[in-house]
Write a structure and sequence with these properties.
HIT family, subunit A, globular, single chain, alpha+beta, 6 helices, binds zinc ion, 34% helix
Length: 218
């Protein structure tokens, strides 16, 4: 399984993958997590936060990974808040059981975006997919389910098990970014390369300087 997993291959830098495309740049890396720019960046500051272990979702984190994940969340809010003037949002489409017939990427990844939904849109999202408030430190409770989590700029966390349209949050992100037709990252391999280059320029140094301290905080 891992051999076929793109994220595992980026993590191990199989065949020099990280050097082959700037989207595979490590913006931050520790023994448990890797952060790269996101393919299909519609804005600067769009990231993938992934565990190094091949897990279906964050609900499978062990206690050390969960602690690190929460710490990285805090660090990303602080650092990106400084860089972009707004705290980022996070979302994850968690997989409950390995899909049998699907080209979905079965390696947990949280999407991070330096964008805020306006309050009307956020309210619509919450209502449409029945997002419920929860405590992100309880994410293990979601294990075995397909879910969506959303962590907003204030650190309020929500989850839902509702069925949603494909790439639902990508669509919301695209609409909020004023690029409603560009939500589907699969349609153009090179989508957002300019934004990815900006992201690297804006975040690599601040992440190297400040994120390790957040990551290791008690
Ligand atoms: Zn993997």
């Amino acid at each position: 399984m891992e051999g076929e997993c793109l994220f595992c291959n980026i993590i191990t830098n199989k065949n020099g993958l990280r050097q082959k495309s700037i989207v595979n740049t490590a913006l931050y890396e520790d023994n448990m997590f890797l952060i790269t720019p996101g393919l299909g960046s519609l804005t600067p500051g769009y990231l993938m936060l992934m565990p190094k272990r091949h897990l279906l979702s964050s609900a499978n984190f062990n206690p050390n990974e969960l602690k690190r994940y929460l710490n990285l969340g805090n660090g990303l809010r602080e650092i990106m808040g400084d860089v972009y003037g707004i705290n980022p949002i996070f979302w994850e489409n968690g997989t409950g059981l390995a899909p049998k017939y699907s080209n979905c990427i079965p390696h947990s990844h949280t999407q991070v975006a330096a964008i805020n939904f306006d309050k009307e849109r956020e309210a619509q999202i919450i209502e449409r997919v029945k997002l419920k408030k929860f405590d992100m430190s309880k994410i293990n409770d979601l294990v075995g389910n397909d879910y969506l989590t959303y962590w907003n700029e204030n650190g309020d966390a929500f989850y839902t098990f509702e069925e949603k349209p494909r790439q639902f949050m990508r669509q919301q992100y695209a609409e909020q970014a004023g690029k409603p037709s560009e939500w589907n990252w699969r349609e153009s391999e090179n989508a957002g390369l300019e934004n990815i280059a900006k992201t690297i320029e804006q975040l690599k140094k601040p992440f190297e300087k400040y994120l390790p301290e957040f990551a290791l905080s008690k």
